[in-house]
């Protein structure tokens, strides 16, 4: 899933959860979450950014979910709405789940199999172009299904590959065996939606709650917060993950104010005492102060994000692989990372799959680790070869990135690095809010696009397939929903993605993903930059702030104030 880069002493540097505090958790109070931008969507059908998924877990429940823990334990899944992690048959091509008794909506009515089926069916409607495409990739007989809003939802039958055996038992029939299917079900796109509450385009403003919180106040578009209050019909006895300690949670937008937010949280006065910078890293000028001050470091969440920050090279525009390879060689990783704050904010990357995943394969296709400041001479030689063959590399490239001070500083180094090989980079930032929606519209995308990817679950399939499967690129290039920023559509790569997906032995499958990562990198579709780390401050009254590996930020559902 796509993330916004933004570290806390509640986690050790490798992201493991620290020893529990001596003080016991207490319920009540108000927790303030400081966001860099308003989430693009809260409609579970379209949620795909990490912060939105973290928030969504307070409002929406799914059949399975991740444990509320840091480090490796947080990558484990447990039943949520379901009684278990599923019952596979036919070699993993068919899966059945049973809903727990006593799970209800915010009005007290029961959550049924029909609600789960309907929620998933919404993803097939033409109205929803954003969000994960796993339902259409996995579910059988879905090629011609148009969603629940047309043809009376297939004359009342809906999608045939989702079957309700009774009110509480749901059966999924897949196109091919998917051994890690229960991991996919942690995503909001698989969560239930009651048809009678479906307001279509407006549902993102006020999704109907099945989790411990409901929306009491929406974002007003004028800088006012979103307010979450307790869902009185959430039954904690059916939920082994969410703690729901605060009475109220405020979502406060502070666009392009990283330095101000860091300064306020360091001072720890007033509302700052119960606030946490959910997305915003401490700015470079404060890092040494935080690291060297024992009291401040106790209020800083630090650790590695199991993901990759990269720059996609649009293969439909930069068509010659030698020109793309030249960009990889000329890129100055040291200066780029320095502008983000230095090594405390990430380790250099040469792969798309991060080292935390079992699928990770260590390789350095172009030998860039040996020249972290770039190798412009080697880049020039490749460009000269391309020119001799009548395929000269473009002298001007456009670059898309989030319009924040942090990314503006980092992208200035790209301009300087590529100037050394006589390429002019035109910086064309997109607003932070809606960035992945805008950048995910193929016709709006420039030559270079900055992205950060956190695996949807700890498997290579959730990295390689969404980022490099050409069949996920919208056919209508004016439609959003694309996460393949390289716009790579290679038939051979697509076939090998299918082969890896179909491998039922998960150990063998992970090896296949690592090999495929290396094969893809040889085609030079992206510049892997860093595997990120974070440093994020929170107030003295915020407790149990640890980084969750599934979201790359603090687990909201576990925190309490007092």
Automatic annotation (TrEMBL):
Q: Which one of the record's GO molecular function terms can you name?
A: peptide transmembrane transporter activity
Q: Name one GO cellular component term.
A: periplasmic space
- State the superkingdom: Bacteria
Q: Where is the Solute-binding protein family domain?
A: 76-470
Pfam families on file = SBP_bac_5
Any one biological process term the GO annotation gives: peptide transport
Q: InterPro entries recorded for this chain?
A: Peptide/Ni-bd (IPR030678), SBP_5 (IPR039424), SBP_5_dom (IPR000914)
Instruction: Give start-end of the signal peptide.
Output: none
PANTHER family noted in UniProt: ABC TRANSPORTER SUBSTRATE-BINDING PROTEIN, PERIPLASMIC BINDING COMPONENT OF ABC TRANSPORTER
- In its UniProt entry, what is this protein called? Peptide/nickel transport system substrate-binding protein
Species source reads: Longispora fulva
Q: What is the lineage of its organism?
A: Bacteria, Bacillati, Actinomycetota, Actinomycetes, Micromonosporales
